[in-house]
């Protein structure tokens, strides 16, 4: 890879031989071992945890019985309980379906062995891990899936280097399952419209730089709660058990449950907004309000399907609509009513974050200049 002020040049070796590509930008969405990140010289510092995780799906032999509650009756080993079983050697997970002889299996244990990711996991390797963690032999038949992975906590030092950008696992690795999917998709929708604005020539100065500012902030937030999960899951002594029990009790209460749900979903982020005197909702995800229009009932989510900026007038404010109309080639202008109106109007970016909001009955002499500033700051010169 090489880049200058105008383009990125990439030399590629593929199945049909070497070739060269020239593009305005290069986005590395090429995973944990990103060649784009390494080629750009972007540090990817962090920690690799000693846990080895094994995940598999198998059919069971006829000698093993799936009980009504999901447990397994295994000759010679007795009952193996469904769900998660923690021992002083690790964690074993079992998921079953009474209607099927297919089971999902999971083990995690600390190991000093370094496995080559290019070497596939074997049935014997999984059975040995089950025996070490659970102290029982589990006969297995046909493997449908075999996977081995470790947990890492790493984040790219920067998500942009000139005309080279990173997204997804190339930009961050989190030490817990599932959240990387949310984070990667949110990277993509944040970056896509900003790249489009630049390529189409209407991006205001510094728009593309906000990709790193916003998504690196979000990545750090995701790293916070996934590393907290490490602390919750890795301890095997009585103090760790007490921590897990207290945490589970907290999640029975509605407010902590909502807080944790937003953390895991990545929806608790408030991006920093340029300018001053912001509404408290600016920088947050737009709520999916039910909207009543002349054409019928719709919602914020339905309006967002065009992947364009949305100006939403909720209080019949013609002076605000006229201001937004100056950006009509880029911004969709909508008028609607909603129950329990939270604000008079909203300016929503294509990634569903609020760029500006007018408080209820906010005077025009303050709302109009602030709206114009937000429109120019995010969507360029009208």
Summarize the model shown.
Keywords: FAD, Flavoprotein. Its cofactor is FAD. The chain has 382 residues and is α+β, with helices and mostly antiparallel strands.
3D architecture notes:
The chain is of the alpha+beta class and 382 residues long. It has 3 domains: 26-43 and 157-265, 3-Layer(bba) Sandwich (FAD/NAD(P)-binding domain), CATH 3.50.50; 48-153, Alpha-Beta Plaits (2-Layer Sandwich), CATH 3.30.70.2450; 290-379, 3-Layer(aba) Sandwich (Glutaredoxin). It has helices spanning 35-39, 123-134, 179-200, 209-234, 238-250, 254-265, 300-303, 318-325, 364-379, and strands at 2-3, 8-14, 17-23, 26-28, 44-59, 65-66, 72-74, 78-80, 83-87, 90-95, 102-110, 143-156, 160-161, 164-166, 172-173, 290-293, 296-299, 310-313, 332-335, 345-348, 354-358. The strands form 6 sheets. The chain has a 6-stranded antiparallel beta sheet with strand order 9-10-11-5-12-15, sandwiched between helices. Strands 19-18-20-21 form a 4-stranded mixed beta sheet, covered by helices on one side. The chain has a 3-stranded antiparallel beta sheet with strand order 1-2-3, with no helix packed on it. A hairpin with a 5-residue loop joins strand 20 (345-348) and strand 21. The protein is globular, with a radius of gyration of 26 Å. The two termini are 36 Å apart. It comes from Streptomyces griseochromogenes.
């Amino acid at each position: 890879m090489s880049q200058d002020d105008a383009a990125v040049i990439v030399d590629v070796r593929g199945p049909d031989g070497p070739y060269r590509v020239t593009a305005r930008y290069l986005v590395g969405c090429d995973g944990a071992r990103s060649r784009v990140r390494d080629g750009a010289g972007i540090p990817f510092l962090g920690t690799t945890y000693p846990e080895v995780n094994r995940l598999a799906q198998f059919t069971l032999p006829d000698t093993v019985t799936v009980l009504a509650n999901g447990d397994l009756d295994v000759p010679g080993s007795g009952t193996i309980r469904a769900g998660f079983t923690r021992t002083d050697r690790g964690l074993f997970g079992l998921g079953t379906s009474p209607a099927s002889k297919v089971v999902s299996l999971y083990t995690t244990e600390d190991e000093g062995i370094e496995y080559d990711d290019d070497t596939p996991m074997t049935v014997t390797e999984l059975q040995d891990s089950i025996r070490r963690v659970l102290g029982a032999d589990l006969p297995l038949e046909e493997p449908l899936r075999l996977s081995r992975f470790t947990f890492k906590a790493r984040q790219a030092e920067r998500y942009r280097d000139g005309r080279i950008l990173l997204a997804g696992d190339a930009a961050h690795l989190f030490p817990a399952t599932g959240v990387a999917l949310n984070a990667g998709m949110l990277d993509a929708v944040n970056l896509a419209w900003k790249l489009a604005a630049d390529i189409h020539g209407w991006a205001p100065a510094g728009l593309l730089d906000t990709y790193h500012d916003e998504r690196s902030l979000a990545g750090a937030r995701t790293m916070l709660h996934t590393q907290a999960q490490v602390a919750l899951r890795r301890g095997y002594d009585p103090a760790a058990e007490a921590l897990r029990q207290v945490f589970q009790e907290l999640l029975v209460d509605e407010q902590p449950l909502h807080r944790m749900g937003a953390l895991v979903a990545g929806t608790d982020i408030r991006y920093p907004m340029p300018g001053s005197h912001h509404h408290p909702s600016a920088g947050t995800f737009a709520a999916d309000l039910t909207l009543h229009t002349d054409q019928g009932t719709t919602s914020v989510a339905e309006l967002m399907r065009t992947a364009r900026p949305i100006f939403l007038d909720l209080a019949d404010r013609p002076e605000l609509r006229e201001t937004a109309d100056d950006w009509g080639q880029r911004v969709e202008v909508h008028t609607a009513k909603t129950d329990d109106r939270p604000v008079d109007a909203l300016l929503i970016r294509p990634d569903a974050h609020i760029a500006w909001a007018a408080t209820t009955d906010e005077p025009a002499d303050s709302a109009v200049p602030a709206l114009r500033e937000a429109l120019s700051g995010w969507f360029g010169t009208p």
